Amino acid sequence: MRGEINERILKRDGIKRYTLDVDAMEIMGKKADALFTYNGNRRYIPVAGFLYETPVCLYDEFREGNAAPAFGQKDERRQALKIDIIVF
User: Fold this and answer.
1) Domain membership of residue 45 as a residue range
2) In whole angstroms, what is the distance from residue 20 CA to residue 52 CA?
3) Please, are residues 44 and 31 in contact by the beta-carbon 8 Å criterion?
4) Alpha-carbon Rg for the chain in angstroms
5) Distance separating alpha carbons of residues 58 and 42, to the nearest angstrom
6) CA distance 34 to 41
7) How far is residue 43 from each of residues 26, 52, 75, 76, 83, measured CA to CA in Å?
8) Which tens digits make up the pLDDT trace of 16-46?
9) Other CB atoms closer than 10 Å to residue 24's CB: what's the count?
10) Strands 17-18 and 86-87, how do they pair?
């Protein structure tokens, strides 16, 4: 559903090339199931992929604290490119 909505938005904005901005962010968690990060804190590390030129979020993934931010970047990029746009 999100992909269809994003595709409609992007077709209307007139931009032909986009910049994919992928960020991992640490969120502190005090829940017992929050895993420890590399620096020993209990956290979650979600990853989100946005287009710099628009407020469109192409994808997001909720990750445990022990997941490396770089893990799975190839698959995330493939998922972002499923929308019929050019991303740089």
Assistant:
1) 2-87
2) 6
3) no
4) 15
5) 27
6) 9
7) 6, 26, 23, 21, 31
8) 788 888 888 888 877 777 888 777 888 888 8
9) 16
10) parallel
Name the residue with tokens 């938005």: 9
* DSSP H or E stretch at residue 63: none
For the cut 70, the answer to whether the pLDDT of residue 53 exceeds it is yes
Number of domains in the chain: 1
Distance (Å, whole) CA 47 – CA 59: 8
Judge if pTM exceeds 0.85: no
Handedness of CA 35, 61, 71, 18 (dihedral sign): negative
Measured in degrees and rounded to the nearest 5, phi and psi for residue 30 equal -100, 5
Q: Please list, in sequence order, all residues whose beta carbon lies within 8 angstroms of the beta carbon of residue 20, skipping any fewer than 6 positions away.
A: 49, 50, 51, 52, 58, 77, 80, 87, 88
For residues 50-71, average pLDDT: 79
